[in-house]
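User: What would this chain look like folded?
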Amino acid sequence: MRFLHMLPQLLGVSFLAMAIGLLLMGLGRQFTARLQRRVGPPFYQAYIDVLKCFSKGSITHGFVMDLGSIMSLAGLLATAYYVPFVQWTATGSGSLVIILYMMTIGYLGMAMGVSASGNPQAPLGISRALALMFGYKIPLVMVILAMILVTGTSDLLSIVNAQQGGPSHWFLLKFPIGFIAVEIAFQGMIGERPYDMMIAPAEIASGPMVELSGKYLGLAFLLHSVQLYVETALIVNLFFGGAANPATFFGKQVFVYLTSMAVNAVMARYRIEQGIAHLWKWAGSLAFIQLLTTKGGF
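Assistant: Here's the prediction, encoded as structure tokens.
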């Protein structure tokens, strides 16, 4: 009965996450085009791409591929239920432990699905993505741990409430080194340059997406859209104090994402070993400094 009572909220958050994520994708492409002095596609192009993918025929490579594709999207949608949107969550909880755990399930689901395709380029891209995860997850966890030490809670809703009172109370100012570390890690989390080696079209023919067609490619678009929503919302809640209304919250998400796209537009791709080393060297070092200085304050 409780699930049936929550079902409208869960469906609402699911569609909201996909809609906002697809809009961010479109705005990012427009922004990149303007930086490169191009016209670029319309901001709603991502919606059209998804509809086109679901309208075309699909090739499956078995039950494992189907299950992995569904599992990956379901894992990230479940994560969205715990990430506050305007200081509200569908589950009533914002546990950072659950958020970090559920995000990993989404990525592992994609790894399972595309690896079952049989194309050697797909597992190569997945192996790069999983290796890169060690580079960005550790700095992210260290910064979150620093915030937990300060606030005394791992509940994201409580962390948002601790930042109320205006920009001077945002953790962006309290954890500036940690914010830089997370921003570097965020570049790897969403797979943008210089950390886009897991798709690298000229090297591994788009890696995980090489065998995706029709609805499977459409699910990959939706997966990335929910990923963008979850990760930009996470940064907004961690460092920008959330928001009092949806328009402000979305505006902060756009700022976070377009900052990343500006870096993507001017950077070249690292090799996989360079990317991991760079994340550990810079994001990891900055996050560790933030953690040490936070502990030193107690």
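The chain is about 70% helix and 0% strand. If you want, I can go into more detail on any region.
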